[in-house]
């Protein structure tokens, strides 16, 4: 009541600066009283529009232009009263700053809850442009696949896309649609280590931004060579309008970015929860990943019982598009393509293997070759020898293609990968029964917050790779519980090229940092380590790959005594259908420091089952020091994904 009296006194004193006449002042006072009686400021929807989460006493958005009241970031009632008061204020020379133009979702909530119409209904030019003059008819959420070169994108990224009238499959119109992004505001040339550390502890502000979907697709799919998966949501007109209007309200908002928690998955989940009742990220987790949000959406239905996700489509990266096109050629055509590219690269004329083909086959080969050179130009830095070579080759190929029959010669390639929501869920709990030839039986408990390993289902990602953070293993043996392994970060990337063409080849590499028992010879022999491998890989048919690495490993024990271990490391991964996968590793490490003990290590892991939520795994390990007793251990695991 005191707050209402103070507002009324302010309005009486300020006169026309706050309300046009006594009738407006009386109506405003009545509306504020009614809002207080209904406790509108405590309703989840209002607090959601202000980004108060759960029982939090302050908004996650930093104080600033997002709030009309100076206390808006800590007092939702003050912000509600300020919003109502602003609705009765005169319109300034810039109509775009008027409250219903700047905060349309808030005004709509108050009008619906109070059965009231704002006294002024101006046309808002900037808002109308954002709404695309009412042509936005749908919302898609886009999953951008992970990027191992960027710590903040290890687990993928999320965009929101506004779909407009007349949209069918991917068209030029589709590319002109707007997309909304959320991310950290990072200084240019920030180094990856600082980026990761500051991102973990909330060292960056974050914000929403928007651009055309064409720009985002080019950035991710063409420049960064990342696949994009579009999940089209089954939302009604009111839900779509709410998403459009509230993202407009967020354009100047600033909050704090946390790599594992308040990231793009968390923010888009909170945003969508305003329109989708019951949408939450898994509450059992203390972290969030993009996959978690898409899993939640895929399991939901609308009020009418229809699936919330209407359909899923792949927007293939430049790299995947080329590989799909290459796979559509016959074996003879692939050989002719290889011969043609080699000839052009060395300044020779087209080889006989190409000239002997019929015009239709030549056109198919040339279209794939042009995709290859476009891919090569995008992949390599402008001005590099590779990019220059690709550009020169592209000109020659274009001239050859002009001599062939007009029209597309290639059929659209089918998707060759399942969407991310058909893979394992992002977190793993694993219980393993162990038997060691000298140390006896034990139980290992493993928790991996995110994300994948070489045995994981490959849905939504290039095969033969994995990335994980915070992977911890505890060992219970002889009534003693100890830390057996902690991978702070683990990356495995075979980078297998199914084409083996020069522009399509990358080096295989691995990286790990953390702590673990030094080897299989003893429990509670914990050392800190950082290791990396660099090498090459080859495909062994359609379902297997082999990688050979030069391995380096630095370790330090509790006394800070250290050692450097180096040697070759060979890894094999193969699948037998989707239900069985094998990963085998063998390495010989020569140690310099500590006991200078060199050793041979080998392991084989097998996964049985292709459920998204569970599987059974078998593991066998062997350690053979250059001198001394060998050690072996086998384990049978039950794995649960959540």
Notes on the protein architecture:
The structure is a single chain. With 642 residues, the chain is an alpha+beta fold. The chain has 4 domains: 2-123, no CATH class; 132-315, endopeptidase fold (from Nostoc punctiforme); 329-402; 423-641, Porin. It is built from 18 helices and 20 strands. The protein has helices spanning 2-14, 22-38, 44-49, 76-87, 99-102, 104-114, 125-130, 172-175, 192-201, 213-223, 237-249, 264-273, 290-298, 318-327, 331-345, 352-355, 359-379, 385-402, and strands at 136-144, 157-164, 178-184, 204-212, 228-233, 255-257, 309-315, 428-436, 440-448, 450-451, 465-477, 480-493, 508-517, 526-539, 544-556, 562-576, 580-593, 599-608, 614-625, 631-641. The strands form 2 sheets. The protein has a 12-stranded antiparallel β-barrel. A hairpin with an 8-residue loop joins strand 13 and strand 14 (526-539).
